[in-house]
Write a structure and sequence with these properties.
The protein is 57% helix and 8% strand. Helix 6 runs antiparallel to helix 7. It is built from 8 helices and 8 strands, in the order αββαααββαααββββα. It is mainly α and 343 residues long. The protein folds into 3 domains: 104 residues, no CATH class; 168 residues, no CATH class; 57 residues, no CATH class.
Length: 343
């Protein structure tokens, strides 16, 4: 348990550092999801808002760490989860609260709009390889497991703790052995479909002069998503093969290094995205401030875009006002229900 406590405390601190800097990783014309005049981020009001938010984030993070340590010392499994949840929900509430203080300084978005025209090919990096490589890794792993079926133990691990120790098991059946690989393939497909939605169903540029930045930002996001799918598929393949090469009932050995390798492999792409976000020629995103609920959720039935850039965090989010989204959610829920019934 001590190993898991240390890892979880490290994750809480990592999340705290990320939340600390996220408000500054935004388009130049935004501050806490509010469209502001040029140079507002250097004013006393802007800095005061940022200090209030960061003070709340670190206070909540200290509470989360206390819950993690207390849950481990007193054997209360729900306490660490409650602490992490408190950090996440509390940070969102702090962001929304500070945003209300910034709203009086909002300025109307510029009425100038642009239509980006580019001859650059838009598609997943690597083309078909974006899908073939991760699916190929998972399929090859499944075939190898099938060829070595008798070498597998009667019970195989399907879930691992934060320190790499197996804590979830399944019988040596087709769904027990291949189930995690199938699930990983489905999740990877969903992520790649999200990348396709970013490419084809997000605004190119709504404010004049931001076309080039928007293109770089979109491309950096798509590359990161594809790299993540490849990395997670490789990680799941390695985990699935561990029963053949290690004693899964004993110490975790080097198993805990598998997710570490994943993190290291996607760090360069994450850093590239952060660099794009911090560029100073980004401008505003052109979406109405009033459609950002609490500064976090975008709801605009009049906007045809399915995906829009986040105003809190890095990447894209969905337009909850787009009816297409709810059709997609309904179909996905139906598929999940049918799979559970069939399983």
């Amino acid at each position: 348990m001590n190993g898991e406590i240390a890892v979880l405390v490290g994750l809480v601190l990592l999340m705290a550092a990320l939340l600390h800097w996220l408000p500054t990783w935004r388009r130049r014309g935004l501050w806490f999801s509010v469209t502001v005049p040029p140079g507002f981020d250097t004013t006393a009001e802007a800095r005061a808002a940022l200090r209030r938010y960061r003070a709340a984030v670190w206070s909540l993070s200290l509470v989360a760490i206390a819950c993690v340590v207390g849950g481990g010392l007193f054997a209360v499994p729900a306490l660490p989860e409650a602490g992490v949840l408190c950090q996440a929900i509390g940070a969102s509430a702090a962001y929304a609260t500070v945003r209300r203080r910034v709203l009086p300084f909002a300025v109307p978005a510029s009425g100038a709009r642009s239509a980006a025209i580019s001859t650059d090919p838009d598609g997943l990096p690597g083309g078909a390889a974006s899908l073939i490589v991760p699916v190929g890794m998972l399929a090859a792993t499944a075939l190898y497991l099938h060829a070595n079926w008798q070498r597998l133990p009667e019970r195989v691990p399907v879930h691992w703790g934060l320190d790499g120790t197996p804590n979830g098991w399944a019988d040596r059946t087709w769904h027990g052995v291949y189930g995690p690989l199938i699930l990983c393939a489905v999740i990877g497909l969903i992520v790649l479909l999200m990348a396709e939605a970013i490419i084809h169903a997000s605004p190119r540029a709504r404010v004049a002069g931001t076309e080039a930045w928007t293109r770089r930002f979109r491309r950096a996001n798509v590359i990161l998503l594809v790299a993540g799918v490849w990395g997670v598929s490789a990680m799941m393949s390695l985990f699935a093969l561990t029963p053949l090469f290690t004693d899964v009932t004993g110490p975790p050995g080097l198993v805990w290094m598998i997710p570490l390798v994943l993190v290291v492999s996607i760090l360069p792409f994450t850093w590239q995205l952060v660099r794009v976000v911090r560029e100073r020629d980004s401008g505003s995103d052109g979406t109405p401030d009033a459609c950002w609920k609490l500064g976090l959720i975008y709801y605009n039935p009049e906007d045809s875009a399915l995906m829009v850039e986040k105003r809190f965090g890095i990447g894209y989010t969905v337009n909850f006002g787009n009816r297409t989204l709810w059709w997609i959610v309904g179909v996905a829920a139906l598929v999940i229900l049918l799979v559970n019934v069939a399983w």
